[in-house]
Specification:
This protein is of the alpha/beta class and about 280 residues long. It has two domains: about 100 residues, Ubiquitin-like (UB roll) (Roll); about 140 residues, Cytidine Deaminase, domain 2, CATH 3.40.140.10. Helices cover about 25% and strands about 30% of the residues. A six-stranded mixed sheet has the order 5-6-3-4-7-8, covered by helices on one side. It has a six-stranded mixed sheet with strand order 10-9-11-12-13-14, with helices on both faces. Strand 12, helix 8 and strand 13 form a beta-alpha-beta unit. Helix 6 packs parallel to helix 7. The protein is flat. The termini are far apart. It is found in: Cytoplasm. This is Sulfur carrier protein FdhD. Belongs to the FdhD family. Required for formate dehydrogenase (FDH) activity. Acts as a sulfur carrier protein that transfers sulfur from IscS to the molybdenum cofactor prior to its insertion into FDH. GO terms for molecular function: sulfur carrier activity; sulfurtransferase activity.
Length: about 280
């Protein structure tokens, strides 16, 4: 919609020199997701790829799993009282016969750009049953050298970040290191949802032979989104949370954190990391 960035006047101070200049900021606007006409969630996001964002969110909630589950997604006309369209409200219509999990219809979820789904009633409510158990997928093995090369490739693909410095990014790579897709958003969880939603729309789920790389930390929610999409390996340039590690260990997800330069920590699923024959140091 052309609202990814906005311009604002700023007072700039550099080495004691004061000037005024326009600055480019990443846009952040609320988006309401409706499911079959009923309000479901509000997320703070960077406008763009809104339909993919909504679809990916519903994959992580266990509502959608295949392209055939989705009937259509539309912006809601008349979202304002004067009948105008804000392009900040989308309605996802599921195909006839799609079963809607009870947890999605009985709560209005507010998600922020920093923490994703906040205030979940309990850990059990978040651990949605995965459609594609990662342990059942064909083995994927990648070398530490290949993983180490991915952050620079992700950074090079962040077009809006170069202009604003204020966006998270998520990318999908093949096990050979080929970049498949990259999305940016003010919320790291939104960037992942946009990737997963586009995969759903293209009929590419489950993503059983790809690597998911995120530009920030690896939260429990990002690990959950990877598991729900059938992704076997999640790598982050920053730290994972303890719950993310627990979930990875339970589901068979390979979780890599602090992926910087040639260094990384493997917190779970080390069998997918193709180490050299020399024994790893304790």
């Amino acid at each position: 919609m052309g609202r990814v960035t906005e311009r604002r006047k700023v007072l700039r101070i550099r080495d004691g020199v004061v000037s005024t200049r326009p600055d480019t900021l990443v846009a952040e606007e609320p988006m309401e997701i409706r499911l079959n006409g009923k309000p479901l969630a509000i997320t703070m996001r960077t406008p763009g790829d809104d339909f993919a964002l909504a679809a990916g969110f519903l994959v992580s909630e266990g509502v959608l799993a295949e392209r055939s589950d989705l009937q259509n997604i539309v912006y809601c006309a008349g979202a304002m009282t004067d009948g105008s369209n804000t392009y900040n409200v989308v309605d996802v219509r599921t195909a006839p016969g799609v079963t809607i999990p009870d947890i999605t219809l009985e709560r209005n979820v507010y998600t922020t750009s920093s923490c994703g789904l906040c205030g979940k009633a309990s850990l059990d409510a978040v651990r949605t049953t995965a459609r594609w158990p990662i342990s059942d997928t064909p083995p994927v093995r990648v070398s530490p050298e290949l993983l180490a090369s991915l952050p620079d490739r992700l950074r090079a693909a962040q077009r809006v970040f170069d202009r604003t410095g204020g966006l998270h990014a998520a990318a999908l790579f093949t096990e050979e290191g080929e970049l498949l897709d990259v999305r940016e958003d003010v919320g790291r969880h939104n960037a992942v949802d946009k990737l997963v939603g586009r995969a759903l729309q293209n009929g590419d789920l489950p993503l059983s032979r790809v690597i998911l790389l995120v530009s920030g930390r690896a939260s429990f929610e990002l690990a959950q989104k990877a598991v729900m999409a059938g992704i076997p390996l999640l790598a982050a340039v920053s730290a994972p949370s303890s719950l993310a590690v627990d979930l990875a260990a339970e589901t068979g997800l390979t979780l890599v954190g602090f992926l910087r330069g040639g260094s990384m920590n493997v917190y779970a699923g080390e069998d997918r990391i193709a180490l050299r024959t020399a024994a790893a140091r304790g």
